[in-house]
Amino acid sequence: MKTSIATVSISGELPEKLAAIAAAGFDGVEIFENDFLAFDGSPKDVGRMVRDLGLEITLFQPFRDFEGMPASHRQRTFDRAELKFDIMQELGTDLVLVCSNVSPVSLGGVDRAAADFHELGERAAKRGLRVGFEALAWGRHINDHRDAWEIVRRADHQNVGLILDSFHSLSRKIDINSIRSIPKDKIFIVQLADAPLIDMDLLYWSRHFRNMPGEGDLPVTAFTAAIAQTGYDGYFSLEIFNDQFRGGSTRSIAADGHRSLIYLGDQVRRVPGAEGLTVPAMPDRTTVEGVAFVEFSADQEDARNLVAILKTLGFRKTKIHRTKKVELFEQGDIRLLVNTEDSGFANTSFAVHGTSAYAVALAVDDAEKALVRAIALGAEPFGQPVAEGEVEIPAIRGVGGGLIYLIDHKSDLGRFSEIDFRPSEEADHAVVSAHLQRVDHIAQTVAYDEMLTWLLFYASIFEAHKTPMVDIIDPSGVVRSQVVENNSGALRITLNGAENRRTLAGHFIAEKFGSGVQHLAFETPDIFATAAALRENGFRALPISANYYGDVEARFGLDPELSERLKAENILYDRDDGGEYFQLYSGTFGEGFFFEIVQRTGYRGYGAPNAIFRIAALKKQMRPEGIPTV
Ligand SMILES: O=C(O)c1ccc(O)c(O)c1
Ligand SMILES: [Mg+2]
Questions:
Q1: Fewer Cβ neighbours under 10 Å: the N or C end of the chain?
Q2: Which amino acid positions bind Mg(2+), per UniProt (predicted)?
Q3: What average pLDDT score do residues 561-571 get?
Q4: pTM assigned to the model
Q5: Does domain 2-268 fall into CATH 3.20.20.150?
Q6: Pick the CATH number of 438-619 from 3.10.180.10, 3.40.830.10, 3.40.50.300, 3.40.640.10
Q7: ipTM of the complex
Q8: What is the 3-state secondary structure (H, E, C) of 86-139?
């Protein structure tokens, strides 16, 4: 499988785009005509620039409104094609993409179109060029790859072939079995794009909402597998028209694109009959078995405040690191580390972001395999020196530059707290257990335009799926939320994308100088028992508006006694087909970090309908005068 991307997919000027495409690791690039026209340099200059970067031009596109033109227009259409052929020869590419005609004057008829392509093939052959035909989903007469293939078949010319584009085929739900019978040599190139399912006009959907394979909802893996089953092993080229990408970071969108193709290739080669696809072998996606620990970086003063909150939540200091200023707090299966080192990565992270949950350790089935896969998918490995005899935990950089540690029980990794730590002498006798058992979810706040990046990152490395995006209403704007989770519930990461800095999430990013963990949710089997224990520990729950409880009682038909108890403890309530959900919040710590406690009885969501009330309460408590707008 060779990888390519169309210049239209990323932002910037042509030289910047090409440099980012090369840096991301692509083998080739499609030159989109407008990028070439806007560039102040000859076709030869562009060709040289591409080759100097070690790239190949996979095709030049698009050539529009070609097939089926009436006699009055036909000659001019061929003249136009010859001019494009001149440019292609100077660029140094042999393939042009002809997309199906949208002109109102064009005429239908498969044989008419086939004759046009035969003649174009003759002209191309004279110059050693090739012509690929792509059916646009909104083409006037041809809008289905099966019809485009029939025209190519009847054109019967060695220099004329088919171009498949996943968006055009999948947006129209065309049966992908129709691909398997196409001879692989007649597929000149394959373009790939995914898209979120949105019910809208095909052209508008295609030109504004495409995204990288794996980022949307279309069955791109099955489409690609059908192509691989023909034996095709040529270029797979991303062609992503997306408003957000056009304005995004050129380098990071290009890197996401490359990751998406490698991930796709790895999924496809595991499909029976598609093993012939040449993709770098890597271990399969890693199973996450739980959250092994979450580590905070803080200075001494913040650490004192944080530890005080942890104690009110029922955590006891159980261990102290043998050589570092790191303390371990435990409750149920939850482990929290508080790191106050004066040097090293935790300290650097503190210097940049202030007190934060900068590292998350995931318990996986095989840490070494997980690391190998993550690196194969472009993740950045992390390591720093450890003292003699201490456990070196493999890690990669994650959201906001934070760390994801990988821990398993196949090695000493699972015993790190016995090896690196000694028991704490502090007894914490006064702390009452709050029955917290495990981390339910980790909520990371990111800038909205980073959301797809991190969804793809998590889902490509770990065995997990994403849930549909939901809108979280903040009194000052909308925050989009999407979850990466696995079937067992051992991995649940909620990604909240903030579009403006007046929302609680946006304020967090602005004040913290970047994305990161904004809240941790712990699970209890009995929210009322937990609330009672928390009270004993002096925990102050986030006060929820009294108005909320009247509505909840009416909406769900709750027993008034239950709604009174919820109100007395400031517990939020939700319900779905699976069961009930109870939520209790702490106040904010620093610039918007907080803890959540949940009880779920089969409920699968995250309490999105309650978010507006919780956010309003958090904001009121954090800044009674309101979050500043600048
Ligand atoms: O939106 C378009 O016009 C357009 C052009 C060229 C393509 O390859 C394509 O898929 C769409
Ligand atoms: Mg296309």
A1: C
A2: 441, 519, 596
A3: 97
A4: 0.94
A5: yes
A6: 3.10.180.10
A7: 0.99
A8: HHHHHHCCCEEEEECCCCCCCCCCHHHHHHHHHHHHHHHHHCCCEEEEECCCCC
